[in-house]
Design brief:
Elements: H1 2-13, H2 24-70, H3 103-128, H4 136-148, H5 159-171, H6 175-180, H7 193-197, H8 207-213, E1 221-224, E2 229-234, E3 246-252, E4 258-260
Antiparallel strand pairs: 1-2, 2-3, 3-4
């Protein structure tokens, strides 16, 4: 067997491959050939990777540009930062009415009208509280007398009507009118107007006390004892108890006008 192999080898060496050998150059050629084949095989994936990368970069750039375009930038802000938006306020209509011309003159007229109407409004309210109501003649006399304290306004009133004006003034706490309705006879005056007005409020009768003390005086009976003296007999209780009878002192002045005596319930 070995001899046969030797013969084959010898025959091969004598053949056309006798001078051919696998040199270093042949090795390099084989390696170059293999490298070229590998490069040809890797070209397509690499190209696809490059194209995908370019598409991705372009897409990201487009999205960023779109977002930046939609973001409002406050004018005057170099950094481009968004500034808080101040809500627009609707115009507020003025609640102050326009001042008319001659406002001071109008104000004076309004104040004067209020002063004229205030006593009447307050006194008319007392009617609803149970106090007797003045007749139109008595109310006119009361208003005229309150303006100038002239006893001529009382001349046509009877003693009971004058007594009603006195009670009315006290009930409404008009103490100046209350004093002026007292007698002006020198011998009957017991204190001055200044002293009367200086009496502390806590020492004066409240409206409720006035009403209780002088209740039913409008239904009383005037009894004249002397030429210029008399009193009104009345019952402050509804039962008309004789023991509860009161006498309200009246005095007639030099002009024949009836007035209230000082401390009328003595």
């Amino acid at each position: 067997m070995k001899s046969k192999l030797t013969d084959v080898r010898r025959l091969m060496d004598d053949s056309v491959f006798e001078d051919e050998k696998f040199t270093e150059q042949h090795k390099r050629q084989v390696l170059n050939r293999i490298t070229k084949e590998e490069r040809k095989a890797d070209w397509l994936p690499r190209s696809l990777s490059v194209v995908f990368s370019l598409v991705l970069i372009i897409s990201v750039a487009f999205l960023l540009n779109t977002v930046l375009d939609k973001t409002p930038v406050q004018q005057g802000n170099p950094d481009g930062a968004e500034q808080p938006q101040t809500p627009q306020q609707e115009p507020i209509e003025s609640l102050v009415p326009p001042v008319p011309e001659n406002s001071e003159a109008n104000k004076e007229k309004e104040d004067a009208a209020k002063e004229e109407n205030t006593p009447n409004e307050e006194e008319n309210e007392t009617v609803d509280d149970g106090v007797f109501e003045l007749t139109p003649e008595e109310m006119a006399a009361y208003e005229n007398f309150s303006a100038d304290f002239d006893t001529a306004h009382l001349k046509d009133l009877d003693p009971i009507s004058v007594a009603k004006l006195y009670v009315w003034a006290g009930y409404n706490q008009n103490y100046e009118v209350e004093y002026e309705l007292l007698t002006d006879r020198e011998e009957s005056i017991m204190w001055s107007k200044e002293e009367h007005l200086a009496i502390p409020t806590e020492d004066k009768s409240s409206p409720d006390e006035v009403f209780k003390v002088f209740n039913n005086i409008e239904d009383g009976e005037f009894i004249q004892r002397e030429e210029h003296k008399g009193y009104i007999r009345y019952y402050p209780t509804e039962a008309r108890d004789p023991e509860a009878t009161k006498g309200f002192q009246m005095r007639q002045n030099e002009d024949g006008v009836w007035q209230v005596g000082f401390m009328p319930l003595q």
